[in-house]
Design goal:
Length: 399
């Protein structure tokens, strides 16, 4: 009696093991799809070199709150553009005297450039950045708008490169990739490798499967008409992830959002591991509220955890080689494909050992995002309800 029962129990256990191993292999499907998507994206980019002679007048909009590190160098890079007609608009609030001093210095150093400083204050909307953008759009003199976060630095061919796709009337918005301007610390190196090995693979899988229905705050190029098509920035002043929303709302008008392989540089706005941790956790928490099912589905992109679990469930050399060895090979290949072959970044090989560390870090933050009911942004605590930012404590008038 006991032996048949043990045999039946062993058969059931074997079935469980094989089912678990099958589920644990799902991340490899994602990784291979990411490899294909990344190869296809960069191959198309290499085989197409659109002319850069489409140069309509441009208004560059920059909402600013507080002085970023190397702000002058970032802003000055926009004054050195190889572009015939453009203006720079900076939106600041009361209390941003340090920023104003930088802008005044910019005007002195580049007297031929059209530079305007717009003060925006006296509002209680949660998203101060979006309120500033709504005002800057009103003040802009040109139809074509290039919108950037204040920590972005660009090369002289930037405007020509990112505006060119608007020549096609089917394109309603343009966004592009971004990389770190410097990697002086371990945290900056970890963030850089995370972008290459984790963030961009997910973006390029989305590009392959569903097209581009998002934009990055580092670069959004569109027109006043396309913004007006969804009510403009005023319509989203109470919502988080405004950059993602602009891309989505432009796409919902039946227009294409072009994703370029062109990469701008960003200067890190975190000074410690703690700052970086909470910045990443805030973003993941916002994504959980914005895309709940997609966020939950990220469980099958965490290949390291599944590989370790597979070995723990069935600890044999064959399983260890297949899952852990396969994980390492695919992650190295994907990081090389995007970072070295696609984006021509230097020093990728020296940071390869950080990929498993990033994967463990990303898994921890993903798990913690399910425990968060609020986010802290610009020193104010918010809850997210129905896609809206709700201050835990009603804010006073923004300054």
């Amino acid at each position: 009696m006991l032996l048949p029962a043990l045999a039946r129990g062993g058969t059931a256990l074997s079935k469980f093991v094989y089912i678990f191993l099958g589920v644990a292999a799902i991340p490899f499907i994602y990784y291979f799809l990411a490899l294909y998507s990344s190869w296809k994206f960069f191959r198309q980019a290499k085989n197409s070199s659109p002319p850069l002679d489409y140069t309509p007048p441009v208004s560059n909009l920059k909402p600013i709150r507080g002085l970023d590190g190397e702000a002058y160098e970032n802003f000055a890079s926009y004054c050195k553009q190889d572009y015939p007609d453009y203006e720079l608009l900076f939106g600041i609030g009361d209390g941003d005297e340090a920023v104003q001093e930088v802008i005044e210095r910019l005007k002195r150093d580049f007297p031929k450039q059209k530079i305007r400083l717009i003060h925006v204050s006296g509002h209680t909307a949660p998203n101060d950045k979006v309120v500033k953008l709504a005002r800057l759009v009103e003040e802009a003199k040109n139809e074509v708008l290039v919108i950037n976060d204040s920590d972005v630095r660009v090369r002289p061919d930037y405007f020509r490169s990112v505006v060119a796709p608007l020549r096609d009337p089917k394109v309603g918005a343009v966004t592009c990739l971004y990389v770190s301007a410097e990697e002086r610390t371990f945290i900056q190196k970890l963030q850089s490798i995370g972008m290459i090995c984790d963030f961009y693979p997910g973006i390029l899988v989305a590009w392959q499967l569903d097209g581009v229905k998002f934009a990055f705050g580092q670069t959004i190029v569109t027109t006043r008409k396309n913004l007006a098509g969804f009510g403009g920035y005023t319509a989203i002043q109470n919502r988080p992830a405004d950059d993602l929303l602009v891309g989505r709302l432009v796409a919902e008008q039946g227009l294409e959002v072009a994703l370029l392989p062109y990469a701008v540089e960003t200067v890190a706005d975190f000074k410690s591991l703690r700052d970086f941790f909470f910045k990443r956790l805030r973003w993941m928490t916002v994504m959980r509220h914005m895309r709940p099912w997609g966020h939950l589905g990220l469980i099958f992109t965490h290949g390291l955890a599944w590989a370790i679990a597979a070995v723990a469930v069935h600890p044999t050399p064959r399983v260890a080689i297949a899952y852990l060895g396969g994980y390492l090979c695919v992650r190295v290949a994907l990081t090389w494909l995007i970072g070295v072959w696609g984006m021509k970044q230097k020093g990728i090989w020296s940071k390869m050992a950080l990929v498993p560390l990033w994967d463990a870090w990303a898994l921890l933050i993903w798990l913690l995002s399910f425990t968060r009911r609020s986010i802290r942004w610009r020193d104010i605590d918010y809850r997210i309800r129905g896609g809206q930012l709700i201050p835990v404590t009603p804010p006073a008038s923004q300054k």
